[in-house]
Design brief:
The strands form 2 sheets. This protein has a 6-stranded parallel β-sheet with strand order 1-10-7-4-2-3, sandwiched between helices. Strands 8-5-6-9 form a 4-stranded mixed β-sheet, sandwiched between helices. The chain is an alpha/beta fold and 211 residues long. The protein has helices spanning 3-24, 35-45, 58-62, 65-71, 85-92, 119-125, 144-162, 168-172; strands spanning 28-32, 51-54, 75-76, 97-100, 104-106, 111-115, 130-136, 140-141, 187-191, 200-205.
Length: 211
């Protein structure tokens, strides 16, 4: 086996550890060996005719889930195409399903997300009846400290560059704990437990997804 095959085998074993951690926190975890398996599992979790909203989840795009929802029998809330994006975001809070990714996840199942507008982290915390996370195994970190460092020093700089924002991290690639008007590190959400059984579902994909 080549090194990539060894990595995938290691990821498969690590995913089982993460899933056990999620289950201990009243959240459901699933392992998908490929993007195609992840797409099939996500559609299994999202009943047809559901109202579906999402934040900026690049991973959902990468597995083909957004295209599948737009072309299928779903009421997809497309914030990017909405004439009033704020109205679309407010509608998302009452959605049947919210799609998300994670900036990082720990080996024992704690999810870490940071946000600028905060519509994403607020919907993860409360509102939509079900939250479906698509998370590449590249997002797995040892512990919460490592997960926060990844969110701030990997995800945030890349997203700041992607949106053309004027933040220190966009030009240096690392976090300066800034108070720039453009900062996207306004809210940090650490999801360590779900009081609502059956609400949070995490699909771990044996691939590099998102940032």
């Amino acid at each position: 086996m080549g090194s990539s095959e060894f990595e995938k085998k290691r990821n498969e074993m690590l995913a089982q550890k993460v899933i056990k951690g999620l289950e201990s926190r009243n959240m459901s975890g699933y392992y998908a060996a490929t993007k195609e398996e992840a797409l099939a599992k996500a559609l299994e979790l999202i009943p047809e005719q559901s109202t579906v909203g999402m934040g900026g989840a690049m991973s959902a795009h990468e597995i083909g889930l957004v295209d599948a929802l737009k072309s299928g029998n779903y009421d997809f809330i497309d914030r990017d195409a909405a004439s009033d994006p704020r109205e679309a975001m407010l509608k998302t809070y009452d959605a049947d399903v919210f799609l998300a990714s994670a900036n990082a996840i720990t080996e024992d199942g704690i999810l870490v997300n940071i946000d600028g507008n905060s519509n994403r982290v607020s919907a993860i915390a409360q509102g939509p009846r079900k939250v479906v996370f698509i998370v590449g195994m590249n997002k797995v970190c040892d512990d919460v400290d490592g997960a926060i460092k990844r969110a701030r020093n990997v995800a945030a700089p890349i997203n700041a560059q992607r949106f053309g924002l004027s933040t220190p991290c966009a030009s240096t690639g690392s976090c300066f704990n800034c108070k720039s008007p453009d900062t996207i590190c306004c809210q940090f959400l650490i999801t360590r437990f779900s009081r609502h059984e059956g609400r949070i579902h995490v699909i771990l994909v044996n691939d590099d997804l998102g940032f």
